[in-house]
Amino acid sequence: MKRADLLLVCVLLLGTAVLITAPLLGPKWLSPTLLWSGSENLDARILREIRIPRVLTAFTAGAVLALGGMAFQALFRNPLATPYTLGIAGGASFAAALAIQLGWSASCLGVSSISFAAFVGACGVILLVFGLTRLRTDFSTETLLLTGVTLSFFFSSMILTLQYLSDPTRTFRMLRWMMGGLEGTAGYRDWLAILMPALPAVAALAAMRHEMNLLTLGEEWAIGRGVALVRTKALLLGLVGWMVASVVAVCGPIGFVGLIVPHICRLLVGPDHRRLFPVTLAFGGAFLVICDTAARTVLAPTEIPVGIVTSLLGGPFFLWLLVRRSPIANVS
Amino acid sequence: MSDDSLVLRVEHLSLSLGGRAILRDVCFVLREGEYVCLVGANGSGKTTLLRCLIGYYASYSGTVLWWGRSGRALSQKNLARRVAYVPQGEGRTAPFTVADFVMMSRYPHWSPFSAPGPADRQAVARALEMTDASHLTARVVGSLSGGERQRVCLAAALAQEADVLLLDEPTTFLDYRHQEDLRRLLTRFNRECGVTILAVTHDLNAAVLSGKRVMALRDGTLAFQGTPRELMRGDVLESIYAAKLVLTPHPFADLSMVVPSAPEEQP
Question: A-chain residues within 8 Å CB-CB of B166?
Answer without folding.
Answer: 224
